[in-house]
């Protein structure tokens, strides 16, 4: 591990030199000497790493070197933090940078020079010790990452993770899986002695003071803050603290807020974020997800080094500090599930490093327009809300959506008069065309136009796998989706004028060739899936849900070719005459769910032709009075019947008239009664 620490420190030293901060702060000569010293030490590190397992003194020496390097890294980071702070403040008021003679800045320069001098002396002492180890100078023939030697360990714990494990697997283990094991309470990582996971209060006292990365995964928590803080006052150099979502607490422990070297802080859900959060000036990653706070302190916006801020599922959060736009190092802002949040701080474009923004709220006021997104190089997922507030076509064009590398895009209009009166709505949506080569998921909700834009039908959407169209009430036709080569999931919800899912003329090809899941919800005018009843459609469809589509099942046309369908769910449909014929051809069906079908009087006698049917659920079908005879020939494993009074009576154990038809089914729940054969 030592060479990785040194690589990081050397990189930060070089950054200081390039910015001439050492000259301005008064320790430029110290930087030069440290750079030379580290280069000399680095040349012997490979040999030291190999010999540490047979020579305890070398291992101790490497530990001292790592500790000193971490201290130096904090000092360097503090310099960068102070510089960024002055730079960001200059955006608000005119002030000079490090040349300022403000007493506060003079005191900082004095303190930082003293710290640099002390650590320089300490590193000289450590460097001089290495001469007694007779380490060989390694000159690698390659450039780049140094190969790591094989390591061993005498640890006796029953479960140990080594260096060869993938980093993601280790992190997943620490934050999730570790808490499920009964035989370990402290988890070391072989070769990474400064990484630890704790799952039991009884073991907090054995934690090493040298731990830099800690996962607190205890399943039960003591009522005392002292126990809950895992004696963090002992672990002064902690860089990573992960405390997953097992428990809620009112606020962060004061001991956590005194871990001044923290780079990564993943909190359990809290009710309030302390204004002292700005003491953690080295933070790069802050996860406050599932917190129950309504606001965040302005002091959060002094974390100049912060790269990632996660606020997912903070459902009570109502606003963000306006000063958030001064966190110019911020790269990711995640706001999924923040249902009470109505706006972002104005002028979000000032977050020039931002590459991931999960949610953007459009507003009428200056600094809240859609054009604020124009200069941001966004990628990943983006939900744009309040689309009805887009002022003009030019505002949409200035958002520059086609330049962004988005994988998922969700556009939503509100249900209000503003959205209904929006002019040029189709042209606005046309200008929001994303990079079609990147887009995998697309959602449009509340769109008020009559027609969809051309780009939504483009075959260039070759990566699109998931499409949702909801509350597009004025549209009578869908985009031409049949030729999208990768579309696997399609949901259409509340389009009251839609008659056909697919209206294209048959050209001899296969349409919807990749579609696996289709959900149709509240489509009162929908008559058929395909206007032309073509055969080469939905060849891979395995799951179909039909909810509140009263005309679709009145006739069976369009269902006869769904031979690969495995799951069929029909809810709240009044006319279901066509169900009887449709079921006969669904020979791959494994699950059938029928709910709230008030006109369903009988089921088709075709269950003997459904050899794979595994589960049948019948719920709130009040007119259904009996089961078909062929049910006794089926291979059903599960039968559920709820809120069907007459049918439940006929299925009573041993006495009901339909009991012989279902007696062979292993798992039966009739009404409130569960039985197993």
UniProtKB/TrEMBL annotation:
Keywords: ATP-binding, Leucine-rich repeat, Nucleotide-binding, Plant defense, Repeat
InterPro entries, per the entry: At4g27190-like_LRR, LRR_dom_sf, LRR_R13L1-DRL21, RX-like_CC, Rx_N
Key word Repeat present: yes
Pfam families assigned to the protein according to its UniProt record, in alphabetical order: LRR_R13L1-DRL21, LRR_RPS2, Rx_N
Signal peptide: none
Disease resistance protein At4g27190-like leucine-rich repeats domain sequence ranges: 533-644
GO biological process: defense response
Domain R13L1/DRL21-like LRR repeat region: 370-495
Domain of life: Eukaryota
Single GO MF annotation: ATP binding
Domain Disease resistance N-terminal: 5-89
Protein's name in the database: Rx N-terminal domain-containing protein
